[in-house]
Write a structure and sequence with these properties.
385 residues; Rossmann fold; eight-stranded mixed β-sheet; 23% strand; elongated; alpha/beta; 11 helices; NE0471 N-terminal domain-like; four-stranded antiparallel β-sheet
């Protein structure tokens, strides 16, 4: 996903759970507010297009102000810039979407919002491992993800699927947040682990990741969310408020330690009609299966693979191989895109790496939703050799 030209975002953070009802959105809202309280410029995007809740939770369900021909300014709430489907549709609109429509909705929220300059964008991911999650995880250069679960063994077992999905997509998993971990007695201050006190630690040991925080059960967390004012704002000294702010500080340190670097980024230049650059430019080894990407001519790109193989291809031919849901039927795998649908002189605007596993091509016909995994690019190169 390429976002608004007026937008500059340093870090993307995913807040994820594999099932609903574990308090993921509550954690995301409190994290965003906690970061803003620490002086950071923070955005909060509600990626749950089927059950958007950030409008209510952040206390602002108004429709955003328009920006340009089709864009929006984000909603401002508690020092955080927020955008949710709840701000774009009324509360009675059913969102029975999947596939290309899910991708389109998420693209609209992110790309058509003038976020301005942000230090951190917190993405409240939809629960599970479906179309929406895949669109976000593949399309954004996440610095990392935090996983939210509850101590029950069944919840943790479901969580394992999400962790494996992030790792397969090369998104760093910062660790686990165990929500509703224990109850603090108001009278004596004792901690009572209602669901046991070791499940999260055992789980983190098994998956070789840290237990970032244990958030206590606190009725005020729910009350604050319903009132549109996340708990850390008015109750930072409660045990739950302290735990959430300590989690905020832990995540801020991890973001500073992370190296969210785009390995490949090629902006297309105006070359002469007959100008051609078939030789790869000098580069350091990337440590990946793709070692170099460059512009060959006005309508050709080149890829140098780790074994030295060089593949030069036209923008149009690659566009016809686009694997996205708008170009290929996700059930039958039959091509939807026809050769006559692609203009003969198609060119490229930019080539961007996604994580450490894929390239995104932004074509000059506006298409940018196709994600080409390195392995698939190598297969295409071998087929056209």
């Amino acid at each position: 996903m390429a976002h608004q030209e007026h937008t500059s975002i340093k870090h993307f953070l995913a807040v994820y759970s594999n099932k609903g009802g574990v308090g993921k959105s509550t954690i995301a809202a409190n994290l965003a507010c906690g970061m803003a309280m620490r002086g950071f410029r923070v955005g909060l995007m509600d990626g749950d297009v089927h059950g958007p809740s950030m409008g209510l939770m952040m206390g602002n369900e108004s429709h955003p102000e328009p920006f340009g021909e089709s864009g929006y300014f984000p909603i401002e709430a508690h020092g955080v810039r927020v955008m949710s489907m709840a701000n774009l549709v009324n509360e009675e609109t059913p969102l029975i979407w999947r596939g290309a429509r899910v991708h389109g909705a998420l693209t609209q929220i992110l790309n058509q919002t003038n976020w301005g300059e942000l230090d951190i964008m917190v993405i409240d991911m939809p629960p599970g491992t479906g179309d929406a999650q895949l669109t976000l995880a593949q399309g954004l250069p996440f610095a990392g993800a935090i996983i939210v679960s509850t101590p029950q063994e069944l919840s943790l077992l479901d969580t394992a699927r999400g962790i494996n999905a992030f790792r397969q997509l090369k998104v760093p998993v910062f660790g686990l947040v165990e929500n509703m971990s224990f109850f603090v007695c108001d009278a004596c201050g004792d901690e009572n682990p209602l669901f046991g006190n070791s499940a999260g630690e055992i789980f983190c040991e098994e998956f070789d990741m840290p237990l970032l925080a244990r958030i206590p059960i606190d009725p005020e967390i729910c009350n604050a969310g319903d009132a549109g004012k996340p708990l850390v704002i008015d109750y930072p000294e409660r045990p739950s408020g302290k735990a959430l702010l300590n989690l905020t500080d832990t995540i801020l340190m991890k973001l500073e330690e992370s190296q969210t670097v785009q390995l490949f980024h090629v902006e297309w230049q105006d070359l002469g009609f007959l100008e051609r650059r078939p030789t790869p430019p000098p580069s350091e080894p990337s440590g990946l299966s793709v070692n170099n990407v460059w512009q060959v001519s006005t309508d050709e790109f080149g890829i140098e693979f780790a074994d030295g193989k060089v593949w030069i291809q036209s923008a149009r031919n690659l566009r016809l191989e686009c694997p996205c849901a708008a170009c290929v039927n996700e059930w039958t795998h039959e091509k939807i895109l026809k050769p006559e649908d692609v203009k003969p002189d198609l060119s490229i605007v930019a080539i961007q790496s996604v994580g450490r596993y894929a390239l995104r091509f932004v074509f000059d016909d506006g298409h940018d939703s196709g994600l080409f995994h390195f392995d698939r690019l190598r297969k295409l190169a071998d087929q056209t050799a």
